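ARCHIVE RECORD
Type: protein–small molecule complex
Small molecule: beta-D-glucopyranose
Source of inputs: curated submission
Record status: active
Notes field left blank by submitter.
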Amino acid sequence: MTREPFGTTARGEAISVYTLRNARGTELRVLDYGGIIVSLKIADRNGRLDDVVLGYDSLAGYERGSSYFGAIIGRYGNRIAKGRFTLDGRTYVLARNNGPNHLHGGRNGFDRAVWGVAPFERPDSVGLVFRYTSRDGEEGYPGTLQATVTYTLTNRNELIFDYHASADKATPVNLTQHSYFNLAGDGTRDILDHVVTLNADRFTPVDSTLIPTGEIKSVQGTPFDFRTPTPIGARIDRDDAQLRFGRGYDHNFVLNKAGERGPTLAARVYEPASGRVMQIYTTEPGMQFYSGNFLDGTARGKHGVAYRHRYGFAMETQHYPDSPNEPGFPSTILHPGEEYRSRTIYTFAVQP
Ligand code: BGC
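STRUCTURE (tokenized, with ligand):
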């Protein structure tokens, strides 16, 4: 493991990049700014290492960007309608940083925070523990929140995210990781050939501003049915109101659970040209599958690559969007004395 300077923020903070490697040669580079994964180099079926995540070459790219490439998202992943919610009789007002809605924790979410980092090395893994204290009233949220996120890269090519939080007042919490993947490597073409399987019989339809309507709908007979392996591009441009609202996939899938306590399979993604396979396991009840519809080639990514429409996808394990305003959704409220715990595992392998 090494630690090197990565730049200085506009606020004057010195930012470091940590480079981690496992016994298989997988290389992960991460910033203390936002816990951002700047690169992840994984072997293809011929043993060739390619970078499978989108990002920028410089810190300024991340500071200017609005795509949340690679970052920890908090205090609340995805949208809260009109930037408002009521808790214990009090209404809280949050930034409207996405049309009429609040997105990914606001203007200065956890993705822009400088986290304390403690590296660790174990016989079978290497990792980083990130710590951040979000102050009472930050971005409009109630209570001081102590957040800890641990990234572990194992010698079995698993990347494990463990989230932990506690608060001194009741507050919504919904932490996730916002890496964009292109398993073909280097983000130089679209992700429409990636073959996706989702362990989800249902999803949460949205309105035109991407806020869930409250309905939990069967995927049966819709372009949202990924229960058998299907290329992302197979149905993405169908004339379907939900696809129009998202300009493609930008929806929360309700993961099938059978009462298990530990992480369960959420998704499998296979990229035919490289043979790379990524699987996602999580303790969370939902996952946002975002097919990079708002990427438009204007932001220059790593090595000057223009990330065009659908050049990367994100799979954000989470509680459902807008849960603080939807009593029928699993609760996202953390009370004092309780512990927020969540675990997501990405596994990487190859298929002939
Ligand atoms: C959201 C998208 C948004 C993207 C980047 C995703 O989690 O669902 O609507 O454009 O993040 O901001």
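CURATOR ANNOTATION: The first helix runs from residue 59 to 64.
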